[in-house]
Amino acid sequence: MYGGVLNLVSNAFCSVDVVDLGAESSVQGLREVVDDLVKLIAKPNVSDLFPFLRPLDLQGCRRHAATQVAKVLQVLDGIIDRRLDEDDASSSSSSSSSSSSNKHGDFLDALLELMSTGKITREDVTTIVFDMFVAGSDTIAITVEWAMAELLRSPSTMDKVRAEIKAAIGSKETIEETDTASLPYLQAVTKEAMRLHPVAPILLPHQCGEDGVEVGGYAVPKGCMVIFNSWAMMRDPAAWERPDEFRPERFLEEAIEVDFRGKDFEFLPFGSGRRVCPGVPMADVWCRSYWRRCCTRSSGACRTACPLSGWT
């Protein structure tokens, strides 16, 4: 599944597959690199507590991160170089139809167009693609895997999703993004999976900007750092009925107005405010797209409840 998500992300950005799904080693190798980067980001670093130690890099975090980043950049630079070569070849052709046919109309094309006008540099292109690729692949893969685990654990829920998809798309061979509006139960499954298994259980730290702020009955002085535990907030019994149960119906009943864009503080899988995750629309569309394909092609053979209690 992880390799499929990697290719989903790379196809949306660059119209290419970055892994050979038939070669497990390529999938595992790229996943290990991305996993290492994510772990490094979350790893406690003594330099954060004592900034004067930062130049020493006592834990080797900076050196290890540079090595892993270089591996991903090598793959992405190869993709960008090939696209630039294609564009050069098409521009040298006298046929305008040949030039237009080489345009993919993807995210990379848009970035290269900006680069050609001087608005961004080649380094900017590589950095933006890197950020989108690393941030998008791991988080979407984790969310999709947890959702599928919950659906396989609950065959009745899987049946409801498949019935809704079948009723909405009929005999269509492919499912389009525009079909999403007619799949409210699938949307509820998306929200419930993100509520129970947030990719970022601890949100970005925020600094209190003024005195007189109170959080949970405690006075927070100006300049104090506040860290939000979104995992606990989204399982709070005061906000959610039977919070530890996978029950998508809650988002069609009592929580029908709850959205994941940051306006409902009991549901913050992407954070809120100015630091809300910029990939909200992308994650929403891609997760539902992947689940649609999985649910329509899965036989639902796992009919017994899987023991997921205690897992987070």
Task: Give your account of this protein's structure.
It is a single chain. The protein has 312 residues and is mainly α. The protein has 2 domains: 1-88 and 105-153, no CATH class; 183-294, no CATH class. The chain has 11 helices and 4 strands; from the N terminus they run αααααααααββββαα. It has a two-stranded antiparallel sheet. Strands 2-3 form a two-stranded antiparallel sheet. β2 and β3 (218-220) form a beta hairpin. α1 runs antiparallel to α7 and α7 packs across α11 (280-297). The model is unreliable at 96-100 and 300-312 (pLDDT under 50).
* Overall body shape: globular
Fraction in beta strands: under 5%
Strand order of the largest sheet: 1-4
Q: Uncertain spans, ≥5 residues at pLDDT below 50?
A: 96-100, 300-312
Largest beta-sheet details: 2 strands, antiparallel
Secondary-structure element order, N to C? HHHHHHHHHEEEEHH
| Mean pLDDT over the full residue set | 80
SS-based structural class? mainly alpha
Q: Helix share of residues?
A: 40-55%
Write the layout of secondary structure elements.
Layout: H1 2-14, H2 24-42, H3 46-49, H4 61-91, H5 96-101, H6 107-116, H7 122-153, H8 155-169, H9 184-196, E1 206-207, E2 213-215, E3 218-220, E4 225-226, H10 230-233, H11 280-297
Antiparallel strand pairs: 1-4, 2-3
Keywords: Heme, Iron, Metal-binding, Monooxygenase, Oxidoreductase
Family: Belongs to the cytochrome P450 family.
Binding site for heme: 277
